Amino acid sequence: MSRWSLAGAEGVAPATEAERLMALMMAEEVMSLLAYKVEGRTGDLPVTKIDRVLALWREIFPENEVLRADGSLLFMSVDDGSARTQVKLSPGEKLALYYFGGVLYAPEGALIPIESPELFLHPSTLRRVWDRVEALRPDCTFVYTTHDLDFASTRSGATTIWVKGCDAEAERFDYSVLQPDSPLREDMYMAILGARRPVLFIEGDNTHSIDSKLYPLIFPDHTVKALGSCDRVIESTRVFNSLEGFHHLDSMGIVDRDRRSEQEVAYLRRKKIMVPEVAEIENLLMVEGVVKAVAAAHRRDPERVFQKVKEAVIAMFGGEMRQQALQHTRHFVKHTMEHRIDGRFSSINKLEEHMADLVDEINPRAIYEQFCREFHSYIREGDYASVLRVYNQKSMVGQSNVGPLTGSGDKRGYLTAVLNILKTQTAAADAIRNAIRENIK
Question: Staple 198 to which of 171, 250, 405, 411, CB 3.0 to 4.6 Å?
Fold first, then answer.
C-alpha cells in the first residue's frame, strides 16, 4: 500500500494548490472532450473528474451554483445571484473542493493521512464532506489525526487509536486501541478517556436537567456524563468498571433515591452507584446547608430563613402524607412482585397459585399503614432530613417559597443563585458543596 498525502505540511492545502488542482481538472476535461469529438463518439458526454467534484460541492453547499466562464469557475449564490471566483470562497468551501478533487488523484489502494480534518469546516458539514471523500475512493485507507472526538466517533467501522502521550526524544507514543465491541457508545467512551479524570455518570440530559447543571460543580474533578435514565446510569457504570483494566479510570454513578428501600439503596452503593439521602435532585437544593448558604449570600438571616422553609416543606408533606405513603407502598409491592415472580414454574397453574398467595403474603395494607405511621412521626418530630429523604415532589422548591425567603427570587432564581455561588471560590460555595456531598453516599 502506497502512502499518499492529501494535505500540505500544516494539514491544510494552500489556496494556490486548490486553484492549480481545479485548473488541472478543467484542462483534463478539455482533453477528454476533444478526444470524444476526435473519436467521433456519440451519446452522453463522459463524466469528468471536475463534473464529479462540482456535483458533490453543490450537494454540500446547495445554496450555490457553479458556472463555467472563460476557462475558470464562478460560484453564484442562489439567493441573491452574486458571483464569486474561487479565490473569494470561504476557507471551508475551498477545502471541500480540494478534498473532493485531490483524492481522485491518489494511487490505487493508497494510504491517505489527514491531519485535522475538522479544520475550517462547520460541524454541520464536517461528517458529510468526509463521508463523500471516502465514498469517492473506497479502495484507499484514510488515517485521520484529530482532536474532534465527535468527528472521530462518526467513522463507522474504523479502528480508533487513543494516543495518551508522546515521548518526543525517544520518538515513542503511549497509545491504546479502543475496543470495537464496547457496549458504551464510542463517542462517549473517547470523551471520557480523553479527559483522563474519574468518571461520574448521572441522570438527565445535557441541556435541561438540574443534574447536568449541578453535579459538575459539586464534583469538579470528575468527567460528568449525563445519560438520561437511571437504568442507563447503572448499566454504563457497570460496563465502564468492567473495562477498568484497559482505561485505569475510576467510575461511579448517581441516581435519585426516589422510593427505593434501604436494601435497594445498599445494593446500588455496592455497585459504585451513589444514592443521595434525599428523594430526588430537587431536594438537594433544599437541604439545610444549601438554604442557609444562599440566604447568607443575600444578606438574609440564615436561621430564620431556614426555619420558615422547614415549616413550609413539612406542612406540604403533611398535606400529602397519605398519597406519598401510597406511592411508596406501590413501589415496594411492585419491586417485591417482580423479584418474587422472577422464578421458574412448571405450569401456568403453579404461577397462578404463586401469585394468589403473594397478595396475602405481601399484605399491601399493612405496608401502607407502616409508611403512614413512619411519615407521621417525621411530621410530629419535625424531622426535616427524613422528610427530604422520602418526599417526592418536584414543585417543592417553588411551593416552599425558598426563593423569595433567601432573597434570590423565584424558583429559577434560586437555582441560578445556587449555581452562581458554586462557580465562585468562596466560603459560601464550599458550604453548599459540602452540604450536598454530605447527602450523597
Answer: 250
Q: Are residues 89 and 120 in the same domain?
A: yes
Q: E strands within 81-220? A: 83-85, 111-115, 141-145, 161-167, 172-177, 199-202
Question: Which position has the grid cell 423479584?
Answer: 339
pTM equals 0.61
Domain that includes residue 224, residue range: 196-274
286 and 254 part of one domain? no
**The domain that contains 24 carries what CATH number?**
3.40.50
Q: Under a CB-based contact definition with an 8 Å cutoff, are residues 190 and 162 in contact?
A: yes
225-259 residue pLDDT tens: 888 899 989 988 888 777 665 555 678 999 999 99
Could you tell me if 217 and 319 lie in one domain? Answer: no
Distance CA 289, CA 428 (A): 10
Residues 286 and 434 both lie in one domain: yes
Amino acid at 405: L
Per DSSP, the residues of 346-375 read SSHHHHHHHHHHHHHHH-HHHHHHHHHHHH
**pLDDT tier at 12, thresholds 50, 70, 90:** very low
Q: CA–CA separation, 130 vs 150, rounded Å?
A: 13
Q: 10 Å Cβ neighbour count for 98?
A: 24
pLDDT of residue 10: 41
Backbone φ, ψ for residue 218 (5° rounding): -80, -35
The count of domains in the chain is 3
Q: Which comes out higher in pLDDT, residue 267 or 62?
A: 267
User: Does residue 240 sit in the same domain as residue 94?
Assistant: no
pLDDT value of position 1: 61
Kindly state whether residues 365 and 417 are assigned to the same domain.
yes
Looking at the structure, tell me whether residues 425 and 328 fall in a common domain: yes
The answer to whether residues 287 and 263 belong to one domain is: no
Q: Which of 229, 254, 274 is the last residue of a domain?
A: 274
Give the DSSP letter string of 289-352: HHHHHHHHHTT--HHHHHHHHHHHHHHHHHHTHHHHHHHHHHHHHHHHHHHHHSS--SSHHHHH
> Which cell is 135 given?
465514498
Q: Longest C-alpha distance within the chain, in Å?
A: 102
| pLDDT on residue 248 | 58
Is 1 among the domain residues? Answer: no
Torsion angle, alpha carbons of 155, 176, 193, 125, to 10: -20
